[in-house]
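User: Could you go from structure to sequence for me? I need the amino acid at each position, not a summary. Structure tokens:
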């Protein structure tokens, strides 16, 4: 039986997503199984769950692999023509009328909703993908901030990079980049970004049990997918505590 948009909305509400939430969605469309209306139906379902006062955000990264190696290879990124490489749902948000997209050479974020402008406005003014001025950093300060993982794990959860940027000793390297980014408005801006470490695999699922036990992460099956909802502010608090105990907790142990 195919999933419908209204069925997905009901399941998301049962999971805990609600009116007025500001939610960052990491997703795999195919994980859900057959969905009537495809990616657009999933976007509609999330928007229906959060209502007119809520805001939906998605990562629309323009690279795969290492951010640092990507930035070494380009001088200019044109966000008018560079699509999202983060899956069909993210591209559906990016292309939807009224969507906004933050200005960043590697990690732009697209958003729909009344708080899109505020959450995206300063991304290019920070010196990193996920710091305090990024949509990830801003969302993590909001009581209404949520992270929705549709068929993906915390391995795809960029807010873990926010925690690394704040408290881990290894994430940044000395290399810095100044890259031209052409925004969706056609204006070109120089964005300065600090390089991330290369060749240091992470294990962002290592704290799943602790997050579940603390009530920060809840899980529900929707269609064929395991779907998780996290409170972003509480997630950051847990990560701060765990990194203080072990600064290398998020690195893959050999």
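Assistant: Here is the amino acid at each position, in order:
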């Amino acid at each position: 039986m195919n999933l419908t948009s209204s069925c997905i909305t009901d399941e998301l509400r049962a999971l805990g997503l609600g009116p007025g939430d500001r939610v960052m969605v990491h997703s795999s469309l195919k994980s859900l199984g057959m969905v009537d209306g495809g990616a657009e139906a999933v976007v509609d379902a999330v928007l229906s769950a959060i209502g007119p006062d809520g805001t939906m955000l998605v990562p629309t990264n323009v690279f795969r692999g290492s951010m640092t190696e990507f930035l070494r290879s380009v001088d200019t990124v044109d966000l008018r023509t560079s699509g999202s490489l983060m899956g069909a749902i993210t591209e559906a948000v990016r292309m939807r009328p009224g969507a906004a997209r933050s200005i960043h050479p590697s990690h732009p974020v697209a958003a729909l909703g009344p708080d899109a402008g505020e959450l995206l406005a300063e991304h290019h003014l920070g010196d990193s993908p996920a710091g305090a001025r990024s949509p990830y950093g801003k969302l993590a300060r909001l009581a209404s901030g949520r992270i929705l993982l549709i068929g993906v794990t915390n391995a795809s959860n960029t807010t873990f990079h926010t925690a690394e940027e704040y408290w881990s000793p290894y994430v940044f390297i000395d290399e810095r980049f100044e890259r031209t980014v052409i925004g969706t408005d056609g204006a070109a801006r120089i964005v300065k970004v600090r390089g991330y470490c290369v060749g240091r695999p992470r294990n962002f699922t290592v704290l799943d049990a602790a997050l579940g036990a603390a009530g920060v992460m809840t899980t529900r099956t929707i269609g064929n997918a395991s779907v998780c909802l996290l409170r972003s502010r509480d997630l950051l608090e847990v990560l701060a505590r765990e990194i203080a105990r072990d600064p290398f907790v998020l690195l893959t142990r050999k």
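One structural detail worth keeping in mind: The longest strand covers residues 172-182.
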